[in-house]
Model the fold of this input.
Amino acid sequence: MPSLETFTALLADSGLQLSPQRVGEALAVHSALAEELPALRAHRFPFLTGWPEPAVAGQWLENGGISA
Amino acid sequence: MSGEELADLSAVELVGLFAAGEAGPVEAVQACLTRIDRLDPELNAVRTLLAESALASAADSAGRWARGEARALEGVPFALKDIISTAGVPTSGGSGLYVDWVPAETAAHAQRLQDAGAVLLAKLNTFEFAGGGAYSRHFGAVHNPWDLRRTTGGSSTGSGAAVAGRLVPLAVGTDTGGSVRVPAAYCGITGLKPTNGRVPRHGVMGLSWTLDHVGPMTRTAEDAALALGVMAGFDPRDAGSSPRPVPDYLAALSAGVSGQQVGRVRGYVEEALHPGVRAAYESAMADLAGLGVEVVDVEIPGIAEARTAGWLVCYAETLSLHREHLPTIEDRDEMIAVTYAAGPFVSAADYLQALRYRPVFQRSIEAALTGCAALVLPTTDTVAPLLRDTTAATSIAATGPGGEADWMADVTRNNMPFSYAGVPGLSVPCGFADGMPVGMQLLGRPHDDAAVLRLAAHYQAATSHHLVRPAVLDTVPA
Done:
């Protein structure tokens, strides 16, 4: 689980500004999701099939750069 | 009928009276205006009242009935959550940032309702940008008609209160992680999150392009079917809009449900139920069986992961859409500020993983639906919490599920996974706990919204939970 220090460092690299209180709230939100995150991250997906996103961008490429 | 009596009727009942010449649209609008005048000071559901234009539209509708030119919702009063654009009418988004914004165009589904003869009577309060929390710093809290100390749930706060309080028979809400179904459950009304793509979102202030839905909030499944049939259909201005033809949802209700199987979702969704909610839900399972429906136990693997994935998607897409609001984050309402703050910490890899997990979870639902017409689960773990317990601080600080203060966890637990999956979800009243309504959620196959509406209509024909009136209707003086 990331720490407040990690979040503060990540924020500094993002070009966004949040108060320490908001960073603390963000950490709490992500902590609440942390239990399930390893299972979600553990799923393995194929390289060339089954990617639903960016479906629109993929279709645009498939169409030779012509919007439908 | 006189006074406020017409305001107590459903949309289908109103249309029946209009067709029989026993009442008219102008009287119906006047009844709703009288009810709003009496009750809304207590509820705070209405953001913008459109009395003058509504009465004019109702007069036009009366003329259409007289000429035999009535449309599907001719003369039925309705209201819109105030994140839904209306040409020439202020659309605040529940935010101080848009308090003076007057759109030039009406949202696609709202225009369809008006084109079907429905009379726009009011714009309704909402969480700021559908995510701001129960307390709006600009517009105040919306109060639950069943207990004015309690929240309606959200984010379609005004829509829940307006339909439960009999201010209007039909309101429109939006649902990203439960924002139609939760206020429906907490307010004792019927709320449908249709299949993703069924109702176009053009003209709706967005939170998340892969999670946002628009749906009807009514007192009966019959009204929801009538409204969905009008609101649904392809719109090229929403890239997620489905080109499928729109069936006659109202006609579909008449088919039988006896002999159908309904899968009762076990495990995660029942783990944290308030005892009173559990009792009401068990009673509802018996009522379903009484319809000749066979209730069978099913599991949906990965629900908790889907909830997490849904929130990761929501945080990332909300920040992407709302980045311009970040410099004013301290002026935003509490929960949308927390949502904004969470966005920068969703990694690209996690966002993509969350998107790619969606088909896996959809296949889990597909497997659970094998042999079943629908799935059933409690809409929420608890009844509506007290407003004082709904701050972001109490939500975040709460660690154990099921407590009244843990309301965000409660709200999203049984709802976000199915917004994420995009399947239709319909909440109907199924009883009471601690004097507050309890909701039961029916889930269906994508684009089989008719199946959940049909089950709900048969359930409501056999039960009366949806007909019980909040006491405030009779205790607040004129």
Observations:
- The mean pLDDT of chain B is 94.
- Chain B has one domain: 5-475.
- Residues 5-475 of chain B form a domain with the Amidase signature (AS) enzymes fold (CATH 3.90.1300.10).
- The two ends of chain B are 18 Å apart (CA to CA).
